[in-house]
Amino acid sequence: MSSVTNDNGKKWIQAGVTGVCIIIGYVLISFFLQLGEWFELESKISSYVLITNIVSVLVAGGTYFYIINNKATSTFLDEVWSETVKVVWPDKNETVKQTIIIMIGVTIVGFILWVFDYLGTLFLSLIQDFVK
């Protein structure tokens, strides 16, 4: 079956939630700094950067603790992990074969669309010449 245990799943879930919260904190810090530049808040509010960094870290930390301590969210993430463990990933050969098939298919569809575009442009130019 699978060598992944439920305890290992909890570690991955916590690592994922931690990563998302770090990204949230980074985005908030960047957002507040951009607002500070747009509205010149650094000159109007003393310690603006410090305040925005503290607020961003508190929001990211609060989000982390809310997700980890919320029973419904934790249950949902545990169910997602248990379903993810069941996924059968293709091996390298199958991935290469399917990638080549997709590339060929996209090339064929692109060529067909190019032909339709060329014929449509030609048809419209003939109509335009006919109207003149």
Write structural notes for this entry.
It is a single chain. This protein is mainly α. The protein folds into two domains: 1-88, no CATH class; 89-132. The chain has helices at residues 6-39, 41-44, 48-69, 71-85, 92-131. The mean pLDDT is 92.
Compact description:
It is built from five helices and no strands. With 132 residues, it is mostly helical.
| Number of domain units | 2
How much of the sequence lies in strands comes to under 5%
Biggest β-sheet strands, sense, barrel: none
Classify the helix fraction into a percent range.
over 70%
- Which radius of gyration do the C-alpha atoms yield? 27 Å
What does the secondary structure layout of this molecule look like, with pairings?
Layout: H1 6-39, H2 41-44, H3 48-69, H4 71-85, H5 92-131
Entry keywords:
about 130 residues; mainly alpha; 2 domains; flat
